[in-house]
Amino acid sequence: MTHEWDAGRRQWLVRAGALGLAGWMGAVSAQSAAGRGDGAIRLALIETLSGPFGNTGEAVFRNLVWAAERVNARGGIEVAPGVRRPLQIVRYDSKGQPQEALSALQAALDDGITLIAQGNSSAVAAALIEAINRHNEREPQRQVLFLNYSAVDPILTNERCSYWHFRFDAHADMRMAALMSVLKADAEVRSVYLIGQDYSFGQAVLREARRQLALQRPDVRIVGEELHPMARIKDFLPYVTKIKASGAQAVITGNWGNDLTLLVRAAREVGFEGKFYTFYGNALGAPAAIGDAGIGKVIAVADWFPNAPGAESHRFYEAFRQRFPNPADDYLHMRMQLMVEALAQAIESAARTGGAAGGAATLPGAARIARALEQADVALAGQRLRMRAADHQAQQPLMVAVMDRQGAPGVPFDVEGSGYGFRVLQRLDAAAAEQPHTCRMTRP
């Protein structure tokens, strides 16, 4: 079912009803949905849903909706023997700004929601972690849990780790190590240019690129390095002109959203023929923007790709495309599917072991769900994710893939109807992708 409402804030409430993949049903009262939840377990999505990066938030929303539909299609989440409740996704627009995200967090709290999801900005995630820590200390009877699906600044599960925060994506150092496993063997690349968005994540990517290049490829020269304002550059031609003039044979970037699309489009316009080693070059407009020039040259790292080998994986992706047939709605994030599965598993485990505070069908408290989530171990379509309790950093395989035409060997699926897909070059198992941590977690 779907509910669309506006109670003084720009929010959308979506309930994935028991019909699951059958689709949405009619609207109901916004007051009823917000105030009572209609018995559902509500997960607040605090994300950029407008502005230049709005498409990234919408992609997350579709993924969480689909994951919720799958949970609800099997009857929902069991919170007491014989009592199951559906999962709802509630949208709050952060506009990509930490202060707006904090306002959205307060709005979710006012609406009685204690499960928060966010990811498309490490700066926003850091602000939410700090605010949730303070809130949970002040109000132990109304504690909040934060599920992070994409904010990958390593500090969030190291120096700033929190009992209330769980990260389901590989952090930047893990992703960079996976990219370097391919770059290490790429003898054609002898010089690189580093470029990124000027905030905590972009800075972390460039810092780790320098460190790992020195370790893995000391023969490679860094011929340029640049940080640019995030979401404010409309024309990347001056940047890529410098990249081309530097003689760089490859670019390493953590850019995402419009900042990546505009960067690769400008590179195509100036005729840059080098490679792009990227964190997010596999979707959200980037393949279509670079076109044939990216074949064999745009390399991306992810927890999973649609062209990951295996019939089970292919069927899972085909089911997503059937649910969202518009090519513009493509971009399945496996980690988000696994995150929702882990949440459902943890709630049911917490309900079984401790009962639900406040009534037989009440959601277990955030502290008990967190204890259960520390033991999360879930699998879908051949991809397994387990949570590391010491720092709340998910451990899972990582893949590195290269752009190619759809229909080429290993590329049965394209991206967003572009005619280009990504062929998996290398798969690192979870143990190979794992990195040490410096977390000293304070537990309630």
Please name the defining characteristics of this protein.
Rossmann fold; alpha/beta; seven-stranded mixed β-sheet; 2 domains; disordered N terminus; 19 strands; 444 residues
What is this structure's SSE topology?
Blueprint: E1 2-3, E2 11-15, H1 30-36, E3 41-47, H2 54-73, E4 77-80, E5 83-85, E6 87-93, H3 98-110, E7 115-118, H4 122-138, E8 145-148, E9 165-167, H5 172-183, E10 191-197, H6 200-216, E11 221-228, H7 237-246, E12 250-253, H8 258-270, E13 275-278, H9 286-290, E14 298-302, H10 311-323, H11 334-354, H12 366-373, E15 377-380, E16 383-388, E17 393-395, E18 398-405, E19 420-428, H13 430-433
Parallel strand pairs: 3-6, 3-7, 7-8, 8-9, 10-11, 10-12, 12-13, 13-14
Antiparallel strand pairs: 1-2, 2-6, 4-5, 14-18, 15-16, 16-17, 18-19
Helix pairs in contact: 2-11, 3-4, 5-6, 7-8, 11-12
Number of strands: 19
Question: Which CATH architecture of the largest domain?
Answer: 3-Layer(aba) Sandwich
Main sheet record: 7 strands, mixed
Counting H and I runs of at least 4 residues, what is the number of helices? 13
Mind telling me the CATH class of the largest domain? Alpha Beta
User: What does the radius of gyration come to?
Assistant: 21 Å
Mean pLDDT: 90
What number of structural domains do the residues give?
2
Q: According to CATH, what is the topology of the largest domain?
A: Rossmann fold
Q: What is the name of the CATH superfamily of the largest domain?
A: Response regulator
Termini, distance in Å? 37 Å
Regions with pLDDT < 50 over 5+ consecutive residues? 1-37, 356-360
What would you call the structural class?
A: alpha/beta
Helix fraction by DSSP (H/I, runs of at least 4): 25-40%
Shape: globular
Beta-strand content: 15-25%
Protein name: ABC transporter permease
Domain Leucine-binding protein: 41-407
Keywords: Signal
Family: Belongs to the leucine-binding protein family.
